[in-house]
Amino acid sequence: MSEMEIPVGTSAAAWGTWSAVLTVTAVGLLLGFLVAATDRAVLTGSGARAAVGTLQSGTRLLLEQRRTTLAPDSLLWRLGCAAVPVLALLSLAVVPIGGRTLLSSSADLVWFNAMEAVLWAAVWLVGWGPNAVHALTGGYRFLIQGLSYELPLMFALITVGVGAQSLRTTNVVAAQADLWFVVTMPVAFVVFLASAAAFAFWGPFASPAGADIAGGVTSELSGVDRLLVDAGRAVFLGAAAAMATALFLGGDAGPWLPGPLWQLVKTVGVVVLLVVVGHRVPVIRPDRFVEIGWMVLIPATLLQALLVSVLVLSGFYG
Amino acid sequence: MDLIERVRRWAVARPCVLVVDVPGSTALRWTVEAELDRRGWPLALSPAGADLLLVVGTPGEDLAQAVDVVWSQVPGPRHRASISTGDEVSSALDAAVEALGEAAGRGQPGDDERPSPGDLLEQRGGGDHMAMEHGGTDADGHGEGVPHADGHAMDHAGMDHGAMGHGGHGEMDHSGHGGMDVAGLPMAGTTPDRDGLRLDALQVSLGPVLAGWPPGLLLHGQLQGDVLSRVRLTWVDADTGDERPASDSGDARLLALDHLSRSLEVAGWPTAARDARRARDRLCAADPADVEAGHRRAARLARRVRRSRTLAWSLRGIGVVGDAEAGPFRGDVFDRVRWWCELASAPEPPADVPPGLSLERVAGALDGAELAAARLVVASLPLSHPAARRMPLSARV
Amino acid sequence: MLTDLPAWAVAAVIALGGLSVAAGIAVFVVDSMARATFALLTSFLAVAGILVALQLPYLAFVTALMMTIEMALMAVFMIMFMMNPAGLMPMTMVHNARGSAVLGAGAFVLLTVGIWTMDWPTRNGAVPADSTRQLGEAIMGSHMLVMLVIGVALFATIIAGTVLATARGRYDRFGAELDAARPDDPVPGGLPR
Questions:
Q1: Highest-confidence range of A94-103, C15-24, C69-78, by mean pLDDT?
Q2: Binding-face residues of A in 279-308 toward C, CB within 8 A
Q3: Closest approach of B87 to chain A, Cα-based (Å)
Q4: Calpha distance B309→B304 (Å, rounded)
Q5: Residues of chain A with C-beta less than 8 angstroms from the C-beta of C187
Q6: Which of A310, B232, B260, C101 could pair with B276 in a Cys bridge, judged by C-beta atoms 3.0 to 4.6 Å apart?
């Protein structure tokens, strides 16, 4: 395994800090746009017009008045709104773009996980801040949902780390030179994608922003605040799709085409898969999902980790 | 017209619409929803997300007050329009988006025209009775009193819960340390809950302006965590002798599709809800070919919904109505959704549909339910309206 | 110790340490449960930042992750017991102010004196290239027994705490003979049983 421990330089070191940060931000916004436009296309059945519609509603929110409620906790509320997109972009910092990550440490996967965990606090604050029942209900629905997906997600990430024998994303991509991890880790792959939908509280996991509670955590948001939260969710989902590509689908590996293009193709594929499949099912109620998370997904991901550990010991991954 | 103004107008060219449907204007709402779907204008879930407030039908006094409160919460640029006949839907929407464009083109609106939350609070609260009625403030309905012996709160039903039913901090009758309030809002007091604990309880009211909610319905109750208790249901403007127009519902299949779309929306399945609306719009059409297409659509949807394991898994065991009196609405929410599916995909319009359940019955089913379950129960059950009871559905076909 | 670090890291440790202490003080100054919770979280995140500056990324990220989830869970209990969102009811965050102040100051003095008077061992060997790997090897190697015992003890504590806290046991759910086919729960779970 020692030949895989070649640290690839960070994109900040290779391209200069500011251009690397700008690249990651731009990629994040593009991914978010891709997610939002695909989502709108599937939801309204409007096809290509959805791309324009997404831009239009983004602009509309930029120009819209911000509103407040009676006796809100403004500080925590606005902090929560701003944190959502920031955390989404920070989680993208450990996703390889053009073969390099913005940040690289010996614990990249834990960083990704930690950004998603801090999102718990952010979303809860968005629900708490406005001092309204529907928003608050949405806020704690998110936490209950989090308790169901968090451990399976951790085990899925640990499985990847065990398989690659490294927590550095670039090493994980390098370890898949012979075989994509999705082949030996299908359970982890599915759990990762489901968790991605869950922490972006989107599609079947959208109950924190559900129609039955008037939009839940987003019910009191208007203008820039709503834009920040909605865009943050979309960027998070896009970042998770890019991360899934890097962790399970060999990152930028592929014949004929240049690496970044392969990565783009795979990421778009994952996004489309997520959105199309996601809208085929109704919202999964958090109170029912808790039992699935603890009684089915945790044992399943543990068995997956065991299988991969045995494969590692038997020298399967080389 | 300079560039910035053009961008502003372009941005609101496909606005988010909050539809307020007045009881008795169901058919008109269907026309409006069809037109909105055709134009691709999304439906807003709360006043905060709306640009256009669309009142469908002619509201009674109380509902009109509720609409005023909702309007005060819509962020600018905004526009408010009302539609009262089916012929004017398209032109009214055109005019509305034009007016909205005007409003947006003028730039960022100031707050001067908008009453501050505190002002609304004072107007409504009155201060002379314990039950504080500030449902209609920007703070989304912080509380509304439980009806008192003098029935004071009842007089205002409809106006103090306009705020999308964001519940509030109810009054302190049960807590024994009354008088404590912050920003004019009384604090929640503790009462025993469903599971035998003592938890803080909020007095909340849901409706009448709420997505996927029967028009004109008001729910008053107590919320502990997200568990509802002491539920009471009323109709807005019930005492004004609302006359439901005969055009309300021609075909029971349309009603079934309407219930389906509402249930699916609340169950969080927007694509299926959209299909239900589309099938309904086709079935409404005059052209027999369209009706045939609508029927096929409805059948397809019914198959899809009935087969969905996730939906069955999600809705099983919720809102069980046990007794035989409930007729076809016996069972849980999923049974009722399947029943609506059956009705919607029937080849011929059924002759008669059993009357809806009384509000007291439904309120009983909501006691101890979680917020999500309560919404599903209300969406899945037909409710009897005092005016509708006089006019059985078969008489209107 | 600190002098082994580059200047920026020393500056970061000092700044984040100050932030951590200030946020810790804020916990007792603010008058709302939510703000106290999130002031505490800020303090923990600042400590995670210090760990980053000390080039211990794994420990830093795990600290951020665990502490955030912990604070979020605290928030859940806060809502469960109090239906007053957005800190509407100002409430004091200190109880037994004098006693706690004496205890806190005493502990602070004790620890500070200890830190500055202790004869710290000097580092033998070089800084590891990969602190995460070293940590993993320590936990899974020389310290495995300790970690396993701690892990099992913590897990047992969690289970025991839940068992003590829950009002309904298996006899309530499955009947006195434990022979009910389906548990009698107020809210059914997601598994068909």
A1: C15-24
A2: 287-292, 295-296
A3: 25
A4: 10
A5: 287
A6: B260
**Is A67 close to B75, i.e. CB distance below 8 A?**
yes
Q: What is the pLDDT of residue B124?
A: 47
Indicate whether C82 and C134 sit together in one domain: no
* pLDDT, tens digit (0-9, with 9 covering 90-100), for B47-70: 888 888 989 888 888 888 888 888
**Alpha-carbon distance C49 to nearest alpha carbon in chain A (angstroms):** 12
What pLDDT does residue B397 have? 33
Question: How close B64 gets to chain A, by Cα (Å)?
Answer: 21
Residues C89 and C135 in one domain: no
Question: Is residue A4, in this structure, part of any structural domain at all?
Answer: no
Q: Is residue A123 part of a domain?
A: yes
CB pairs under 8 A between B and C: 38
**Which residue in B199, B148, A29, B98 sits closest to C78, CA to CA?**
B199
B118 CB neighbours in chain A (<8 A) are 70
Question: How far A73 CA lies from chain C's nearest CA (Å)?
Answer: 5
Residues in chain B: 397
pLDDT tier for residue C106 given thresholds of 50, 70 and 90: very high
The reply to whether C81 and C158 lie within a common domain is no
Among C83, C84, C187, which would you mutate to test the B interface (most chain B Cβ atoms within 10 Å of its Cβ)? C83
- Per the structure, the complete domain to which residue A211 belongs is given by 12-313
Please tell me whether residues C5 and C76 are part of one structural domain. Answer: yes
Number of domains in chain C: 2
- Domain match, C24 and C85 both: yes
A76, A133, A204, B222, B313 from B183: Cα distances, Å: 18, 17, 38, 21, 43
Domain-embedded: residue A7? no
Please, are residues B173 and B130 in contact by the beta-carbon 8 Å criterion? Answer: yes
Number of domains chain A contains: 1
Contacts with B159 (C-beta within 8 Å, 6 or more apart), sequence order: B62, B65, B66, B69, B124, B135, B136
Give dist(CA B125, CA A155) in Å, integer: 53
Chain A residues touching B375 at Cβ < 8 A: 212-213
Taking only the tens place, the pLDDT of each residue in B355-388 is 777 787 888 888 888 888 888 888 888 877 665 4
Q: Are residue C64 and residue C139 in the same domain, yes or no?
A: no
Among residues C95, C111, C140, the one where a domain terminates is C95
User: What is the reported pTM?
Assistant: 0.85
Which tops the pLDDT comparison, B397 or B190? B190
- Per CB-CB distance under 8 Å, the chain A contacts of B164 are 134, 214, 219
- Full residue range of the structural domain in which residue C142 is found: 130-168
Ramachandran area for residue B114 (φ above 0: left; ψ -120 to 50: alpha; else beta): beta
* Residue C101 forms part of a structural domain: no
Chain-chain contact of B138 with A70 (C-beta, under 8 angstroms): yes
Question: Is A292 in contact with C191 (Cβ distance < 8 A)?
Answer: yes
* Binding-site residues on chain C for chain A (CB distance < 8 A): 32, 34-35, 38, 41, 45, 57-58, 60-62, 64-66, 68-69, 71-73, 75-76, 79, 85-88, 130-133, 187-191
Q: How far is B187 from chain C (nearest CA, A)?
A: 7
Q: What structural domains does chain B harbor? A: 3-105 (3.40.50.12280), 131-240 (no CATH), 249-396 (no CATH)
Q: How confident is the model at residue B351 (pLDDT cuts 50, 70, 90)?
A: low
Cα gap B258→B249, rounded to integer Å: 10
Asked whether residue C36 is assigned to any structural domain, the reply reads yes
> Does C69 map to a domain?
yes
Q: What are phi and psi of B20, to 5 degrees?
A: -105, 110
- Identify the pLDDT of residue A188: 93
d(CA C145, CA A302): 21
Q: Decide: C108 and A91 in contact? Cβ < 8 Å.
A: no
Alpha carbon distance C46, C65 (integer Å): 13
- The pLDDT assigned to B163 comes to 37
Asked if residue A5 belongs to a domain, the reply is no
- Assess whether C81 and C156 both reside in one domain: no
In this structure, is residue C179 part of a structural domain?
no
